[in-house]
């Protein structure tokens, strides 16, 4: 058993133990067999989860790897950030056109095309080291990753029973988080060869891609027709009327994740925190998010998605406000970020589960699509707002902008979430 396997087992064990403390009963982390109807569903679920983990791995690798390569080549930080935005721009560009092929051809072909696009793009990075060529490749990876996530999210939510939906989506988020956290460990390989990390990541993607061919294709529930881009935007309106409030958590997490990983390092270095300590601070937040993904998802199955979301958003406000007070003390800040990760690291997966609770089955593909759009918008806005805050606000802590956002989102869900969503007519 290698080091990474041990780390993953420890994290999963801690996650399981944490849930035991709160619920007072034994739960074995890999004993999911009794919750699925048959072996076919079990195999499908774990193949989809494996694909998502590899997708997280490739995304987690690209962000620091390309930033370090460009920094070494003297590329400005603004252009570096623009290149990183290519992935999210790709997601936004492809989003209106994703639903038609999913409904017409089913989940499997969309996953195959998305996986092939990601794996091939990763393999092309060493071919030509150019800013704009790499920007286009990142844009293509954004398109491919969105196809993967859109299809796998919708497929998992469609066959997951309501009583276990939060748990299943949390496992989805958990393994994406593990992959995302392991991805940056590929960065040191750049000292051996700049091409090596891209080749290894591409190889992993091709392996995960190969497992998709063992799955039988299925299609979403076809009670509505997908005939034009206009009808797609009609369904955007329908889903937004049902479940607009469920898009707030994915937007919040996109804003939070991109701000923490993109803007906070700049703020921390300007405060005089060493680069090695900044890395530990970011890791503490990521580990906290991984550990509590599964317990929060299962608690949301038991106590309701809205109730858990309100608790974690309010906790996030308190913890980030505390971080603003104690930001000069690295040890206390590390603890607070770890706790904040435990609290708010599940907002994306809980948002998907919340949307699924509020949305009719035939509109789930559209709902999952809009969750991805909300996350991407948050990811694009987060670093920009964070950068402006750092540039023009000298007297306030960077964590103030995050804590205020948490409080606003808590207030919206607490007030509007108690009202029943109005029921629109479904356009065909």
From TrEMBL:
Transmembrane residue ranges: 45-70, 82-98, 105-125, 131-148, 169-190, 196-215, 236-256, 276-296, 308-326, 332-355, 367-390, 396-416
Q: Which organism is it from?
A: Cytobacillus stercorigallinarum
Give a Pfam family name.
Answer: MFS_1
> What Gene3D superfamilies is this protein classified in?
MFS general substrate transporter like domains
Question: What is the protein's given name?
Answer: MFS transporter
Subcellular location(s) per record: Cell membrane
The membrane-topology field of this record reads:
Multi-pass membrane protein
Q: Which residues form the Major facilitator superfamily (MFS) profile domain?
A: 44-421
Q: Which InterPro entries match?
A: MFS, MFS_dom, MFS_trans_sf, MFS_YcaD-like
PROSITE patterns attached to this UniProt entry: MFS
User: Keywords in UniProt for this one?
Assistant: Cell membrane, Membrane, Transmembrane, Transmembrane helix, Transport
Keyword field contains Magnesium? no
């Amino acid at each position: 058993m290698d080091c990474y396997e041990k780390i993953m087992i420890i994290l999963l064990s801690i996650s399981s133990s944490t849930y035991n403390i709160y619920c007072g009963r034994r739960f074995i982390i890999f004993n999911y067999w009794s919750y699925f109807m048959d072996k076919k569903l079990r195999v499908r679920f774990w193949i989809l989860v494996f694909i998502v983990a590899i997708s997280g791995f490739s995304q987690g690798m690209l962000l620091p790897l390309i930033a370090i390569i460009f920094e070494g080549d003297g590329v400005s930080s603004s252009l570096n950030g623009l290149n990183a935005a290519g992935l999210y721009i790709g997601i936004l560009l492809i989003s209106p056109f994703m639903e038609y092929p999913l409904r017409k051809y089913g989940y499997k072909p969309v996953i195959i095309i998305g996986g092939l696009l990601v794996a091939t793009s990763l393999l092309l990075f060493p071919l030509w080291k150019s800013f704009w060529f790499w920007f286009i490749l990142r844009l293509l990876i954004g398109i491919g990753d969105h196809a993967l996530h859109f299809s796998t999210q919708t497929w998992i939510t469609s066959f997951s029973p309501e009583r276990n939906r939060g748990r299943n989506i949390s496992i989805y988020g958990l393994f994406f988080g593990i992959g995302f956290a392991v991805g940056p460990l590929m960065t040191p390989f750049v000292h051996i060869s700049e091409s090596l990390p891209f080749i290894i990541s591409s190889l992993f993607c091709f392996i995960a891609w190969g497992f998709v061919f063992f799955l039988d294709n299925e299609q979403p529930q076809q009670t509505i027709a997908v005939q034009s881009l206009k009808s797609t935007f009609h369904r955007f309106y329908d889903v937004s009327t049902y479940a607009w409030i469920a898009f707030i958590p994915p937007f919040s997490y996109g804003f939070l994740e991109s701000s923490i990983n993109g803007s906070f390092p700049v703020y921390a270095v300007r405060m005089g925190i060493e680069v090695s300590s900044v890395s530990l601070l970011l890791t503490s937040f990521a580990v906290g998010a991984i550990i509590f993904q599964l317990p929060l998802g299962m608690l949301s199955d038991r106590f309701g998605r809205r109730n858990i979301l309100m608790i974690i958003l309010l906790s996030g406000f308190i913890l980030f406000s505390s971080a603003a007070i104690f930001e000069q003390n690295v040890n206390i800040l590390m603890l607070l970020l770890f706790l904040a990760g435990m609290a708010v690291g599940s907002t994306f997966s809980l948002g998907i589960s919340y949307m699924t609770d509020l949305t009719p089955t035939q509109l789930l593909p559209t709902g999952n699509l809009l969750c991805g759009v909300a996350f991407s918008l948050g990811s694009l806005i987060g670093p920009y707002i964070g950068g402006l805050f750092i540039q023009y606000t000298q007297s306030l802590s960077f964590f103030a902008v995050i804590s205020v956002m948490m409080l606003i989102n808590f207030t919206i869900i607490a007030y509007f979430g108690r009202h029943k969503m109005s029921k629109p007519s479904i356009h065909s």
